[in-house]
Amino acid sequence: MARPTSVFVCQECGAVYPKWSGRCDACLAWNTLIEEAAAADGHPGRERGHARRLAFVPLDGEGGPLARRGTGLDELDRVTGGGLVPGSAILIGGDPGIGKSTLLLQVAARLSGSMTAVYISGEEAIGQLRLRATRLGVRTAPVQLAAATAVNEIAASLDVAKAADVVVIDSIQTMFIDGLESAPGTVAQVRASAQALIRIAKRRGFVLLLVGHVTKEGTIAGPRVLEHMVDAVLYFEGERGHQFRILRAVKNRFGPTDEIGVFEMTDAGLQEVRNPSALFLAERESQVPGSAVFAGIEGTRPVLVEIQALIAPSPLGTPRRTVVGWDSGRLAMLLAVLEARCGMSFGAADVFLNVAGGFRVAEPAADLAVAAAIVSAASGNALPPDTVVFGEVGLAGEVRAVARADARLKEAAKLGFTQAILPSRRAPADGTLDMRLHRVGLLSELLTTLKPPAPEAVPARKVSHG
């Protein structure tokens, strides 16, 4: 019986089927099966050959610390764990126009002074790259440029001794291999192109930086296996209306994950932000109800951001719950806890929540700061301007302890904050950082803490009737 000459591959998850169907059984996505040419054994990308035995080595062998290459950008070095590791592959994803190509061109220009840096673009011509380099002020940097999309040509140019030390591919979705009949950007092409480039990077020992497009959900386009193939995955976050950009590590084989680097987009490119807490709080209005400063931790770095809340009467039958920079499901849970445990009511009010500066907060330690902002907005009483808040809130209304409270308080004290509202469990001792600590064990205690003191009674003036 003749083997099939084509198979159908899901463009979302990479599952292979012998015939077309409307829905992928693996990821349950509709209309994602695309016909692709099959290899000799009926599966794309699989080769036949004689198996050879593996040479096993002991675990306790020779090996020292990894020799990293600093990029000259401290924020990028922080995210990668101290610099770029030779032979590693790093995938950088982000929305269109967020600054991925700008960042990598700046990195290539900085590294080209001490090593060979190659920038290969599949989306822009050489003239466009030179115009961007002129705008960034790196036109004279000895970066080697090329405009190509054929992986076979790129591999032939890079698979030689000392061809490059750092290689930028912009982007992996534009690359293609001649042996596959599918179009660039499909699962088979992205997987095969990345595998071929990573194999050369491992063999020749150069750093491979891949730019990846993202889908409308914010994940990197192409097969999920692409993120498993590379050594590190970095996401470039930020709103196009804000000048701040956040580079976040979600996977790193050579360093910590959830580390962030903060940049500011300017006319001359991306500039590092040495103290992001001061920048996020620069435009804060301190005496406005509904504002609370959250002391968070991103990777190894403490970051202070402003959380804003607004409570307004709703003209709709179903009140709105609008969230920017936080989890909308967690906001719904927190509102339910405030209603059930603290006696507050939001059934006829719209609730708006915003993390200022385009920053995104993911850790549960922001619960207490969000609750403080909501209570402040509902009561009309502004929090003291020199107060930071952090703590996790449970469904029973308890305030749970969070990690690294000392680091959060130290960062707050450095920026001039003198008070903190924090969980009572495992709280630092008084006088540790010369800050006044308000410990709360239950969410209901937060309302008492935020309630303004009653005015002192003025004695009545005696009136003489003589």
Automatic annotation (TrEMBL):
Gene Ontology CC, one term: cytosol
One BP annotation, GO: recombinational repair
Keyword Transmembrane among UniProt keywords: no
Gene Ontology molecular function: any one: damaged DNA binding
Keyword Zinc-finger among record annotations: yes
PROSITE patterns: RECA_2
Top-rank lineage group of the source organism: Bacteria
CDD domains, per the entry: RadA_SMS_N
Domain RecA family profile: 65-214
Pfam family, one: AAA_25
Positions that bind ATP: 94-101
UniProt cross-references to InterPro entries, sorted A to Z: AAA+_ATPase, DNA_repair_RadA, P-loop_NTPase, RecA_ATP-bd, Ribosomal_Su5_D2-typ_SF, Ribsml_uS5_D2-typ_fold_subgr, Rubredoxin_2
Keywords of the record: ATP-binding, DNA damage, DNA repair, DNA-binding, Hydrolase, Metal-binding, Nucleotide-binding, Stress response, Zinc, Zinc-finger
Locus of motif RadA KNRFG motif: 251-255
Record SMART domains: AAA
Gene3D superfamilies given in the database record: 3.30.230.10, P-loop containing nucleotide triphosphate hydrolases
Region (Lon-protease-like): 350-466
PANTHER family, alphabetized: DNA REPAIR PROTEIN RADA (PTHR32472), DNA REPAIR PROTEIN RADA-LIKE PROTEIN (PTHR32472:SF10)
Family: Belongs to the RecA family. RadA subfamily.
Function: Plays a role in repairing double-strand DNA breaks, probably involving stabilizing or processing branched DNA or blocked replication forks. DNA-dependent ATPase involved in processing of recombination intermediates, plays a role in repairing DNA breaks. Stimulates the branch migration of RecA-mediated strand transfer reactions, allowing the 3' invading strand to extend heteroduplex DNA faster. Binds ssDNA in the presence of ADP but not other nucleotides, has ATPase activity that is stimulated by ssDNA and various branched DNA structures, but inhibited by SSB. Does not have RecA's homology-searching function.
Domain notes: The middle region has homology to RecA with ATPase motifs including the RadA KNRFG motif, while the C-terminus is homologous to Lon protease.
Protein name in UniProt: DNA repair protein RadA
Organism: Defluviicoccus vanus
